[in-house]
Design brief:
eight-stranded mixed β-sheet; 188 residues; 25% helix; globular; 6 helices; alpha/beta
Amino acid sequence: MKETWDTRYAGGKYSSAEPHKLLIALNGKLKAGNALDLACGAGRHALFLAEMGWRVTAVDNSAVGIEIAKKRADEKGLTIDFRVADLETGEFKIEENAFDLVCDFYYLERDLFAAMKKGLKAGGIIISTIHIYGAGEDAGRFLLKEGELKAFFDDFEILHYHETSSTDADAGEHHRRTAEIIAQKKSV
């Protein structure tokens, strides 16, 4: 039987409370506003942002992941707009020009990139880390080719871009190389 995200979260997998190092590094460089955390899982990024004063909408397909995140938010006295929705089927629509920050950590649905870009206000930031493959590595539905993440945001100002040469050391239990980006939507 295939392991589901609900099963993974219920078993304690991918439930780190430690936010990604990129998000930690970005903290303090941005004025808190409206943030969207896509595929938020157990809420590590949403919780971190809410603690920093952001108004956060956090979306995930896993009801178990959202329940873990809600419990963590309640324990900290944080208010976060949690939503259970399947991002692959369009159950959650990203509102245009609504967010100052969009987070997409380790979730790939290529069709969402255009909506993420439209969802940002002028001057807004996208922060993302996605698993990648290169020459001699197996491709997969949830993997980008080397350089592909950067290409999705070629109309944005790239503030940071890096591709790892080995397994990502993030606390989220990842076993592949990644591309990471911080990109800013240009003001019109």
